[in-house]
Design brief:
By secondary structure, this protein is mostly helical. Among the domains are: 1-67, DNA polymerase, domain 1 (Orthogonal Bundle), CATH 1.10.150.20; 72-114, no CATH class. The chain has helices at residues 2-7, 21-30, 36-39, 43-46, 56-71, 106-114, 163-166; strands at residues 73-76, 81-84. β1 (73-76) and β2 (81-84) form a beta hairpin. The protein is elongated and about 70 Å long. One of its GO terms (biological process) is DNA recombination.
């Protein structure tokens, strides 16, 4: 499915001329070869598009796009770390994959995730600290009915947060 999406065009790679989701699906349903890099050369033959040229540059970009989807940097709020979405099994580090996101350091990533640093300007815009956050006291209101339930006050930033309880 991922390969189909990349081949039909995605944020990381434009599609080949005349290739959309249907043709990408057809191509990957026709092949049993798991060596994606080499099987991409067979697109013109499998799809009966002899005028189509699949260059080495396209195949390399295709593999980089797939790698980006697999290993893009994400912030894990539970671990408070900037990490690849999936582990890098080849012994490389996030710095070796700049196309999958810029590794900026865990502390800066945490501050961006908290909304304390503006992602564009990199300037400090707030100083929210989830470890020292005190929820404001609930105020009574003539609009609310007696016995109304309030929203769940738990936050993913709390150390005792348990996702299985809150989803």
């Amino acid at each position: 499915f991922r390969n189909m999406c990349v081949m039909s065009g995605c944020d990381y790679l434009q599609s080949l001329p005349g290739i959309g989701l249907a043709k990408a699906c057809k191509f990957f349903s026709l092949t049993t070869n798991t060596d994606t890099f080499n099987v991409l050369c067979k697109i013109p033959a499998y799809l009966k598009m002899p005028q189509l040229e699949v260059t080495l540059a396209y195949r390399e970009s295709f593999m980089r796009a797939v790698s980006t989807f697999l290993h893009q940097l994400v912030f894990c709020p539970r671990e408070r770390l900037l990490r690849p979405l999936n582990n890098l099994d080849d012994g490389s580090s996030p710095e070796d994959h700049p196309y999958a996101g810029m590794f900026m350091g865990h502390k800066e990533a945490l501050q961006i995730a908290l909304g304390n640093i503006d992602i564009q300007s990199k300037k400090l815009v707030d100083n929210f600290d989830p470890d020292n956050y005190q929820a404001p006291a609930m105020k009574s209101s003539s609009w609310s009915k007696s016995g109304d339930e309030i929203a769940d006050p738990y936050s993913i930033w709390q150390p005792d947060y348990d996702r299985s309880v809150h989803y």
